[in-house]
Amino acid sequence: MKYFHQLAFAFSLLSPSFAASPNVVLILSDDQSWTDYSFMGHKVIETPSIDQLAAESLTYTRGYVTSPLCRPSLASIFSGLHTPVHGITGNDLRKKGESKKKWDRTEEEGSKKHEEIYADFEKHDGLARLLTKAGYLTLQTGKWWEGNPQRHGFTHAMTHADPTRGGRHGDVGLKISRTGIKPIQNFLDEASKEKKPFFIWHAPFLPHTPHNPPKALFEKYLAKGESKFVARYYAMVEWFDQTCGELFQELEKRGVAENTIIIYVTDNGWIQSEDSGRYAPLSKQAPYEMGIRTPLMIKWPGKIAPKMDKETLVSSIDIAPTILKAVGVEVPAAMTGLDLRDTEALKKRDAVFGFDGNHDMFDVNDRTANMESRYLVKGGWKLLLHDQENYGLPYAGKSAAHPNNPEGKTELYMVTGDPHEKRNLAEENPEKVVELTKVLNSWWAPKK
After folding, report:
1. pLDDT digit string (tens) for 374-422?
2. DSSP bridge pairs for 412
3. Shared domain check, 254 and 384
4. How is 380-447 classified by DSSP, letter by letter?
5. Looking at residue 28, which CATH number applies to its domain?
6. Is the residue at 349 inside a domain?
């Protein structure tokens, strides 16, 4: 039967109908909290383009990413694997025994260390390789950490990943949307000429710092009485929204919008500090709602009915298998996520999980070395287990703990009624902690 399917697929490549395979555009917001959209109820920020996308999509407002940090989060979205499985637990690689020094990608030893990470990640079949094998043209734009994108299956890429020319997390690719979408337009021209379906990894460096929005947008939010730091961030969010609108218009203009699946998610959250350009606590790099929650949308005109789902739990781990199933590509057994179109299966699962690590990986081979926390959301409950108390591992930093919990003790919240996690219910509900800890450990428990 396996060979029959392979033969049928081979013949499908020769058929004119193959060009009708749905295109896929995956939009990844960079450093934006789940509350920072008009359709999610923000009273100041305006996001008309994304609001329209949400209205035209199956939109889950209770989406979660697998890590509150960009590199591990993006690795999960691309690979369909959880952080402890794909092994990308932080952004940079710290020298062993050092508190701050990191391995330099431009130095020989540092290059070897990073190559170990890239090569290990390359072993996993991610979205680009699987779609390219299925006959798609695949384009990488924006944020990308894992070395040369082509080695992971992309046919086209903006990022060169050469550390001697500034390659780290996207380099030239980070210009997308901030300086227009010409690379996408050129790619679409080629896909049209070759009559091939396309996949676009669209991860613009927005609303990520540097917060340097168009002057008019900055002044617009400054006039609303916000601090200059908050006004800049709000302006960045609207600027990102405008660039999304530009992309949507391009698809419409070319007549491919009706046959294009658009999926939207953010990599991790962000709370803008009122008195500095940095993020505030309990957002980026922390496993709280403002660090890991995101709206998750999937639009496919005529195929997926628009709906605003405010109850069902979904995870960014579900994105890869959803795309593969939608385009008719077999999902690897290693991908444990569910099809976002299968609402009944999602409701039966009723739990999502995640791993929070320090910004830096402490060891290439030890995937618990930088672990700060694990988290579970099940129904309305959310459990946070921090290393120090639960596994005797070094507590890697206060970023993982609530300001009222600097020791990193177990935290339990009813997030459906307390979305900003003001009241820790762990001591009042020891039985629930035990119950949810078993569920979390059944997902993944590090070796003691």
Report:
1. 999 999 999 999 876 655 555 445 455 677 788 889 999 999 999 999 9
2. 383
3. no
4. TEEEEEEHHHHT------GGGS-TT-TT---EEEETTT-TT-----TTT-HHHHHHHHHHHHHH----
5. 3.40.720.10
6. no
Give me the CATH number covering residue 404: 3.30.1120.10
Question: How far apart are the C-alpha atoms of 381 and 352, rounded to whole Å?
Answer: 11
The total of structural domains in the chain comes to: 2
Range of the domain at 381: 370-448
* Helices assigned H by DSSP within 223-310: 228-253, 289-292
Give residue 90's pLDDT band: very low, low, confident or very high (50, 70, 90): very high
- Same-domain check for residues 335 and 411: no
Which 3 state secondary structure label does DSSP give 315?
A: strand
| Residue 364 resides in a domain | no
| Cβ-based neighbours of 310, under 8 Å, separated by 6 or more | 61, 62
pTM above 0.70, yes or no: yes
Query: Mean pLDDT over residues 14-25, rounded?
Result: 67
Residue 225's contacts (CB-CB under 8 Å, 6 or more residues apart) are none
Closest-CA residue to 13 (of 154, 192, 197) = 197
- How many C-alpha atoms does 204 have within 13 Å on its Cβ side? 26
Mean pLDDT over 349-354 rounds to: 96
pLDDT tens digit sequence for 272-311: 999 999 999 999 999 999 999 999 999 999 999 999 999 9
- From the list 116, 117, 101, 104, the residue with the least C-alpha distance to 166 is 104
DSSP 3-state assignment of 140?
A: strand
Summarised one tens digit per residue, pLDDT across range 97-141 is: 787 789 999 999 999 999 999 999 999 999 999 999 999 999 999
Q: Any idea what DSSP says for residue 219?
A: H
- Please state, in angstroms and rounded to a whole number, the distance separating the CA atoms of residues 69 and 30: 10
For 217, the 3-state DSSP assignment is: helix
358 forms beta bridges with none
Show Cβ contacts of residue 159 under 8 Å, excluding neighbours closer than 6 positions: 140, 144, 148, 149, 167, 170, 171, 172, 173
Asked whether residue 186 is domain-assigned, the answer is yes
